[in-house]
Write a structure and sequence with these properties.
This protein has 14 helices and ten strands.
Length: 333
């Protein structure tokens, strides 16, 4: 019995080693022997609340993104706490304005809707909804989704709907991930509109298959430099071909397109940005690093990439350093 167990263990171990060596060979092959230099359509994530946090006029940045950068693809988060500050009373002015500007410029948008959407603290539950029971809060969330879709589904600029942001990743000031609620949200969106649904995942921190099976399009985030307590700043030692190979396998299995919904193009701050000096902030993200990350994402093989940080580039421009903003101008038609 001992020897039989030992043989089984050895077979499993050898199989795992063989798989590891096989995938390592594929990554090396893709990274160095068959490199990809993909033509990319770039877009940006735009957050009015983050622009305001930086002390800027968010409308000015959005208009400059359209007119100066010539951005024609936007991901825009819909903050539940902003559009429904009182139960059943919706304020649409800011979203209306952005979508109207996009319509006039021929730009395309996908709205990120749900409780958890891009930018810290990730979840934007209104204060009034926090006092509801779990069932009541879920119904209020689904009602909000219905209102957003019914209001904007007639706009030609809306291409897709992103439902939640990285819904299976336990991150931010949020409740625990809830698969059943996510299914209800997806069903609500599909009932009202036939545009594709995007689900997103962390490219580094979670499996992709849980989300891709429920989505029409999978969006992944790619982060290059992060901060962890006790470690400090560090860069992920992940070759571009890792994302390329992973995408090739899952696209083949699920027959779904995969895009980069969030490519880190700004500094990672572990405390309020104004607690860093201007020099410290600029050392954390330079135009040279901007160029390196564009070259990196070109080797991943993705054809559509949404950049994260347009508000920061404009802030730097306001602070007398236009290098990030000017380099970004070269990326858009």
């Amino acid at each position: 019995m001992y020897f039989m167990r030992r043989r089984i263990f050895q077979k499993i171990l050898f199989s795992l080693i063989a798989l590891f060596l096989f995938f390592s060979f594929l990554i090396i092959l893709l990274e160095f022997i068959i490199p990809s230099k993909q033509d990319i359509t770039f877009g940006v994530t735009f957050s009015p609340s983050y622009a305001t946090y930086l002390g800027l006029d968010w409308k000015e940045i959005f208009q400059a993104s359209l007119d100066e950068l010539k951005v024609r693809h936007f991901r825009i988060p819909v903050y539940w706490s902003s559009i429904e500050p009182s139960q059943g009373k919706f304020i649409w002015d800011d979203l209306d304005w952005m979508i109207e500007q996009a319509d006039a410029s021929g730009a395309k948008i996908f709205l990120a809707i749900g409780r958890k959407v891009p930018r810290w603290p990730e979840c934007y539950t209104p204060d009034w909804a926090k006092n509801l029971s779990t069932d009541e809060q879920e119904q209020a969330l689904l009602f909000m989704l219905e209102q957003v879709i019914e209001r904007y589904q007639s706009h030609p600029s809306i291409e897709q709907w992103q439902v939640e942001n990285e819904p299976f990743l336990n991150y931010g000031e949020c409740p625990s991930p809830n698969h059943n609620l996510l299914q209800k949200e997806i069903s609500t969106v599909r009932k009202l509109d036939n545009r594709p649904i995007i689900l997103t995942v962390s490219g580094e921190l979670e499996p992709w298959n849980r989300s891709i099976r429920h989505a029409d399009i999978l969006g992944i985030s790619i982060y290059r430099q992060v901060y962890r307590q006790g470690i400090g700043y560090f860069s992920y030692p992940i070759p571009a071909s890792f994302y390329r190979l992973r995408s090739m396998i899952l696209s083949a299995i699920y027959n779904r397109p995969i895009i980069v919904s969030e490519l880190q193009m700004e500094p990672w701050f572990f405390k309020s940005f104004d607690q860093f000096s201007l020099e410290e902030r600029r050392k954390l993200f330079t135009v040279s690093e901007f160029e390196k990350r564009i070259e990196y994402v070109q080797r991943t093989g993705f054809s559509q990439v949404y950049l994260w940080g347009v508000e920061w580039w404009y802030a730097e421009k306001k602070w007398q350093d236009e290098s990030l903003w000017n380099y970004a101008k070269t990326l858009f038609p």
